[in-house]
């Protein structure tokens, strides 16, 4: 009997080993570190590890409470706002924080928007026992965290990129003259929008429909990727996050410039809170819209929150949000019409942001990016149920997003959306769908300037909305045993991330 059990166990182990497989495009090499297979132009799947709070190189801290608030029987907006305003005037400590405001357990009625406009502030509850209710009417964010100002180029700092082609995944390139730059400098890697690119992408040829279709204007597609210099060798500069859209001479090349962003705030967090919105009916449009919105923020977080009955999102990150971690958050039972512009459970329009271990139910676009969203960005190890639309880039050219171990009973799509909306067109490029589980997926490659990868997807493949578009790179559809099971995890560990401390499941 023992011999039979041993034989069966050995057979099972052998079968398990045979079932494991690795991607041809990125896989562990002989030394255990990842190796990347370039295409004919040198493009590779990029490194997505440099996202989230401080690029995952710092653990989100537990900030000391400096002020506490208790609920009243009436509207609590003013007392919470007063506490935030008082803490905003406190000095910033050496650790970068003013302190945390603790909303003690109970129910808080909020008639408007709680606004955090200074850095170094954490708004914290006592978990599910601290509930904030968006009362009354009005589409709004219940909590709005935002700095001020805009990114501005420093005059005279522009340098041309001299490489004729800088591939996706590259972390270095040549410029005309690096003598005025140094390690640690913040730069923008700029890729111009040109009419030739728009024409080759066929985004000036979108089929017009009666409700109005807007062709893509070239100058609206100037792309500004924020990066930091890690090393300089002669006129070659090295950057902290990879190029996620190739710099091509035929489309105007690229350049770098130094910048300022006066007014952007840092070190802000929202955590351990439950949010609800009042509503009149299941299709009510005049009530709380976002539970939490961030913009003009760098290095912040939202964690351990739940949003119920909102019309748009649990967490909405604006286009000038950078290095935000959204962790262990839930979006449940949205209330709105089920149509465009609603139920984007976790929406990201910013750069280098991370959504991890989140859950959505009864949404539409649950893990989603908007127009001209500049990566890298990551949605990792999250789930969506009772979906009413698809996960993925929603419209107008998001670049450099990883969807890793996403599970949905709906679709993940990366496609030419054509004249949907007012002319969404190509939704995304250089997107990586890794080990995801879906009902079905339409993943296409744009005509130029990008590839999309679908590796280890479990679910049906279908053509998508528009016929005749180039197919994406598909590998191992419905094949079990992909190794590594998570690209993001192994890339992060290779970057020195203390994985077990950050992402205990």
TrEMBL record:
First and last residue of the signal peptide: 1-19
Keyword entries, A-Z: Signal
Domain of life of the organism encoding this protein: Bacteria
Record has Signal as a keyword: yes
Protein name: Pectate lyase superfamily protein domain-containing protein
Source organism of the structure: Terrimonas ginsenosidimutans
Keyword tRNA-binding recorded: no
